[in-house]
Amino acid sequence: MGEKTQCCGRKWCVSDPCGIVCAVITWLLIMYSQFVVFLVLIHSYEEHWFHTGINFVLFELLTALALISHVKTMLTDPGSVPKGNATEEHIERLQAAEEFKVIYKCQKCCSIKPDRAHHCSVCDRCIRRMDHHCPWVNNCVGEANQKYFVLFTMYIALLSFHALYWGIWQFVLCVGKEWHSCSNLGPPGTTLMLIFLMFEAILFAIFTSVMFGTQLSAICSDETAIETLKRISEHALMPGLVVERFDKDGLAAEYLHGLREHKNDKQNYICQVMKQAGMLCHNQRWWSAVKVTNVSGTNVYVVLRAPRATGVEAMVFAVDLHQREATAMVMAYAAFARQQIYWARDIFFVFVDGGAPGMDAWLSQYHLIRHSALHADPLPEMGGVIIGAVAMKGGPDWHMLVPLRAMYTQAFVAVEGLHSVMGKYGVQAITVAVPPLNTYPLRKSTRLLEAIARALNNVLERFHQSYFLYILASPDNFVSIAYFMPIIGGILAPLLIFAYRDWTNLTEIFVPRSLFVMHAIGLLTWCLSSTYFTDLTSNPRADVMYLGISMLIPWGLLLPP
After folding, report:
1. The domain spanning residue 426 has which CATH number?
2. Known catalytic membership, residue 140
3. Mind telling me which residue stretches traverse the membrane in this protein (predicted)?
4. Pairing of the two strands 280-288 and 374-376
5. Burial group, residue 302, by CB count within 10 angstroms (0-12, 13-18, 19+)
6. Which of 358, 47, 306, 24 is nearest to 176 (CA)?
7. pLDDT tens digits for range 371-407
8. Which end of the chain is more exposed for a tag (fewer CB within 10 A), N or C?
9. Given this model, what pLDDT does residue 258 score?
10. One domain for residues 431 and 507
11. CB within 8 Å of 215: residues ≥ 6 apart
12. Where is 161: in which H helix or E strand?
């Protein structure tokens, strides 16, 4: 990833899979607009030749300019620093030329970093005046190609606004003529294509207009996006920038053995161990207020008071009490965190009994909110505003299953896990799936937890929205949206194709067999999602089988009825 190759006669091309996919999608969307123009919009030329001719010329001109600027942005060196020039001889020559000059060396690409240069992990190079890495152009936006990127966003914004105007005009024309001679397609096909074109135009008009305005603001202020972020939160410490020091994996193994021995009395065992570590520990009973659903449980929560704060803010680490490995890991980290003195926020370690309802009961009492469906004991120990929460859970030994399960539960299940109930209390949360101990070292998993905790401990840090564009497939691997979106497209594509085929045959008086098949698939998907995919202790091999069936069934709808 990030390797340079010869492409179209140019010496710069980033071979990043995510960027290549996004660049291809950009071209396909522009080609779709051309398809609509020649199939639908230009059909009104005979009756409105002047209006259609002007719009056609303007549309084609903007399309050509947008494509050219996109290629120029993608294949232009953004201002890369020569790789491997940080040799001792070169450094000595620079120091001899300017005696008191501070020379910065990039350890990742072994180059001398000029002022205002930043290292891009995707391009694997230091870029002069790097603004950001844009996957839609598969390149960094830097000193040498920023002007092309500004032109690209401007042309796409103008093209989107023009497509929106022309699409609405054509739609009104077709309705006025009762869909006679306004398109090469029938009314359903014309309507579908115009609606999708207008939706695409609105989406990209908003996105590119914001990007164009952001770039103009950066040019006027002579400040890149990275420099702006540093100015806003220069003390922010993200997980990848801290040095993790957790070394109590032996203690975690001891706690795991104790949880297995006290499987019928986990709450008292956890409190006993945490009190010995010098922390406050309490039990909280909760039960359902509805007699029909007879559910109840006993939560355990441990409080670590920050030595450098007044308790105004807090962070929460929650784990299902019945997930022994994840529980032992959180217990070991709590004991380790107790020995540190750098905490600026209180930490609540919540061991939840009963899944999402148990988490809901604890949060309702923490925020002093009366729950209509749950009763719970009050909390003896309280804290400040929860600025972030992390839900730990046991993960399967199938890395690709983690994002697939996440997509299924997000699409079809109201409550995905412990983090699902936190949103209604205004708490931003993420879930971290911990692989089994026999496949991944416990120390490395716990150090990821330590990195997140230390990041949230910073007084300026919050969970950034970019967390929700990625899936943490493993403790050291974030999966970009560009990787799991094609999977979603593969699931939805046959459904959309079949729906369009049935829509064009609305005049036929019969109920297609596919209608019952689609209802059956919907019922099957709902049953699997609401029962199986929310079971955190399910068999990974069975998960793969069910997911494979669920992904293949929609393509069967394309068979003739």
Report:
1. 3.40.630
2. no
3. 20-42, 48-68, 148-172, 192-212, 478-498, 510-532
4. antiparallel
5. buried
6. 47
7. 888 889 999 988 888 888 888 887 655 556 666 666 6
8. N
9. 92
10. no
11. 131, 141, 146, 149, 150, 153
12. helix 146-176
Does residue 323 belong to any structural domain of this protein? yes
Instruction: Identify whether 137 is part of a domain.
Output: yes
SS3 state of residue 142: coil
DSSP E strands, 222-364 = 280-288, 296-304, 313-320, 346-352
What does the mean pLDDT of the chain come to?
75
Q: Of 188, 213, 232, which residue is a domain's last?
A: 232
Per-residue pLDDT for 288 more than 80?
Answer: yes
Residues 382 and 349 in one domain: yes
How far apart (Å, rounded) are the C-alpha atoms in residues 117 and 180? Answer: 60
Helix ranges restricted to H, 293-370:
324-338, 356-366
Nearest to 364 by CA among 418, 295, 424, 318: 424
The one catalytic residue among 13, 126, 134, 281: 134
- CB under 8 Å, gap of 24 or more: what pairs does 200-204 form? 200/29, 200/32, 200/33, 200/160, 200/163, 201/160, 201/161, 201/163, 201/164, 201/167, 202/160, 202/164, 204/29, 204/156, 204/157, 204/160
Residues 460 and 408 in one domain: yes
Same domain, 458 and 418: yes
Please, which residues have CB within 8 angstroms of residue 37's CB and are 6 or more apart in sequence? 56, 59
Query: What is the domain extent for residue 110?
Result: 88-127
State the DSSP string of 466-478.
Answer: GGGGEEEEETTEE
Residues 23 and 48 in one domain: yes
Characterize the bridge pairing of strands 346-352 and 374-376: unpaired
Output the CA angle 30-12-104, nearest 5 degrees.
Answer: 125
The answer to the question of residue 543 being in a domain is yes
Pick from 107, 138, 122: which is nearest to 26 by CA? 138
Q: Rounded CA gap, 243 and 59, in Å?
A: 53
**Judgement on whether residues 265 and 332 belong to the same structural domain of the protein:** yes
pLDDT band at 465 (very low <50, low <70, confident <90, very high): very low
| Angstrom distance (rounded) from CA 14 to CA 136 | 12
Do 492 and 546 belong together in one domain?
A: yes
Angle at 195 between CA 58 and CA 485, to 5 degrees: 100
Query: Contact, 375 vs 298, CB < 8 A?
Result: no
Domain boundary among 410, 444, 479: 479
Indicate the Cα dihedral angle 172, 176, 179, 182, nearest 10°: -70
- Please report whether residue 11 resides in a domain: no
- Residues 407 and 448 sit within 8 Å (Cβ to Cβ): no
Number of separate domains in the chain: 4
Does 144 share its domain with 179? yes
CA dihedral (249, 255, 259, 261) positive or negative: positive
pLDDT score for 180: 66
Query: Which residue, among 395, 296, 375, 381, has the nearest Cα to 347 in the 3D structure?
Result: 381
Phi, psi values for residue 238, rounded to 5°: -85, 160
Rounded Cα distance between 561 and 554, Å, is 14
